[in-house]
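agent: user wants the structure for Lysine N-acyltransferase MbtK from Streptomyces lunalinharesii. delegating to structure tool.
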Amino acid sequence: MNTPAFTRTDPALGEFALRPVDPAADAPVLHSWVTHPKAVFWLMQDCDLPAVEKEFARIDADPHHHALLGLHNGAPAFLMERYDPAHRELVGIHVARPGDIGMHFLTAPTDAPVHGFTHAVITTVMESLFADPAVQRVVVEPDTRNTAVHALNKAVGFEVVRTVSLPSKDAYLSTCTRDQFLATRGDR
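agent: tool returned. relaying tokens verbatim.
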């Protein structure tokens, strides 16, 4: 399970990779991330270690939801979840088209931020999603209060479709097509 599912080299920051989360082995590091104050929008602030492991085991067993641990130069540094919006998160709120994939990402908390790191993470996430030729559009639903992620989403091509009310938050339903993402990269 430690074999990367996707790798990307950032010219300034080095190697980024994604591998499937191992719920038992990765729970301690994930627990430290999702309960950190920086991760307030991840909605797991009050979870203990067994609850985090249970949540990632649930995701691991779900055919419509996948969690991947992001590595930076071989060390755990971020988390990505991908989901089928026709079956999870946005059912009844968003009419999913063939080729839609939903996504969440979280960078690990750090006391020594690196300029451009989070942008490199979201670029890695988007490149990994679009590496699947079946994926035509990425759908996200960030909390309306999460201004930092709104700026990152815009930087990689997301456009807000509308505000939606979800059980745990008000969110900006946003989408990014392959062409919109490539246009931000200059690869159109």
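agent: one observation worth passing along. Residues 1 and 176 are 30 Å apart (CA to CA).
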